[in-house]
Design a protein that fits this description.
Elements lengths: L1 H22 L1 E12 L3 H8 L2 H7 L10 E5 L8 E5 L8 E9 L2 E8 L4 E12 L2 E13 H4 L4 H21 L4 H4 L3 E5 L2 E11 L9 H12 L8 E9 L4 E10 L9 E5 L2 E9 L5 H14 L3 E2 L5 E7 L11 E9 L2 H4 L1
Antiparallel strand pairs: 1-7, 2-3, 3-4, 4-5, 5-6, 6-7, 8-13, 9-11, 9-12, 10-11, 10-15, 13-16, 14-16, 15-16
Length: 340
């Protein structure tokens, strides 16, 4: 009888300790650092774009069957990367950008369908050797799990692999700013037909619904066969309020009107122009290069005309993202001194 009681007591203790081990949390912090031979702006642009994370994600190396989805506008608060995996070492989760500065990105990581949350961040700084990147994670985990997994070793090793992937990717890519050739051009008046809408900057995909675009082309081509490239006309870009006012349209002959759609006209303008080659993932970097050119050369803003993206080779023309070509225009006025 005594032996039976002892066994019951031992089993009871195991159950209690297991329950305590599951509910009692243990804090952890892990940081790993790497130095990348690239300028800080290039590294920052990659870290705030989860489309790029998909290319250096160390957990993707663990499970080739892992699925993921990127949502929201890269480089903005609310931009997300969600993933699902049957591998318990990868699991399911969502990363959401919480805050962005010139030298940091703060990210909330929700794991196990929201069961746990981890605070993560990237901090960057310029050194003589390039850009130093620190990847941090901190949070709490069940004490029972901590007994079998050393986060400093397991997560730290994964972070080291990820930073190595990041280093290799960035050091073999051409810096966007250096490859952007900006020039000032004169544009004749143009006419476009399309639809105009306000959308959240972190949900730009809402403006490019395939059915909407297909219906637009069908309606326009029923009126005229002289149809040019698709364009986006940007009237407002308000990051503080996370909203953009834009028009998705196609170039048509002057005087063209299509029932159910708006007609947009731009006047004669001078514009700073650059061509973005390849995927739209980093198109913001080309815009930034144009804006830097405008600022450096002290041009003014032409507020009467919208900024434009002209998809000279778009998704309807090729399935290969590397072949995409987008001409970007920002309307400007002459520098004050030159105008005088």
């Amino acid at each position: 009888m005594k032996a039976g009681r002892i066994i019951l007591i031992v089993i009871g203790l195991i159950i209690v300790l297991g329950a305590v081990g599951f509910f009692v949390q243990k804090d952890f912090e892990v940081t790993r650092t790497v130095t990348i031979d690239a300028d800080q702006e290039t590294v920052h642009a990659v870290l705030v774009d989860f489309n790029q994370f998909a290319k250096w994600n160390p957990w993707a190396d663990m499970d080739s069957a892992m699925t993921f989805e990127v949502s929201g506008e890269p480089g903005t608060v609310g931009h997300q990367y969600s993933w699902r995996s049957e591998d318990p070492m990868v699991g399911n989760g969502i990363m959401t950008i919480q805050d962005i500065g010139d030298d940091y990105v703060s990210i909330k990581v929700s794991l196990g369908d929201g069961a746990y949350e981890v605070a993560s961040s990237h901090t960057i700084s310029t050194t003589d050797a390039g850009t130093e990147v620190s990847w941090y994670a901190g949070g709490s985990m069940p004490y029972l799990f901590a007994m079998f997994a050393d986060m400093e070793t397991t997560l730290g090793g994964t972070y080291e692999a990820g930073l190595s992937n990041l280093q290799g990717m960035i050091e073999t890519m051409e810096p966007a700013a250096a490859s952007v050739d900006v020039s000032v051009v004169d544009l004749e008046p143009m006419t476009f037909v399309g639809y105009r809408m306000e959308v959240p900057i972190d949900n730009m995909d809402a403006a490019y619904d395939e059915e909407k675009i297909g219906a637009l082309y069908g309606a326009v081509m029923a009126v005229t066969q002289d149809v040019g490239s698709m364009v986006t006309l940007y009237y407002v870009w308000d990051e503080e309020n996370n909203v953009t006012d834009l028009a998705v349209a196609v170039k048509v002959p002057a005087g063209t009107e299509v029932e159910g759609y708006e007609t947009f006209e731009t006047g004669s303008m001078m514009a700073a122009k650059a061509t973005h080659s390849g995927s739209y993932d980093n198109i913001g970097m080309t815009h930034e290069a144009i804006l830097e050119y405008i600022s450096t050369n002290e041009y003014g803003w032409d507020m009467e005309n919208p900024s434009m993206e002209v998809y000279t080779v778009g998704m309807g023309d090729t399935e290969n993202e590397d072949e995409l070509m987008t001409d970007i225009y920002h309307a400007v006025t002459m520098p004050t001194e030159a105008a005088e």
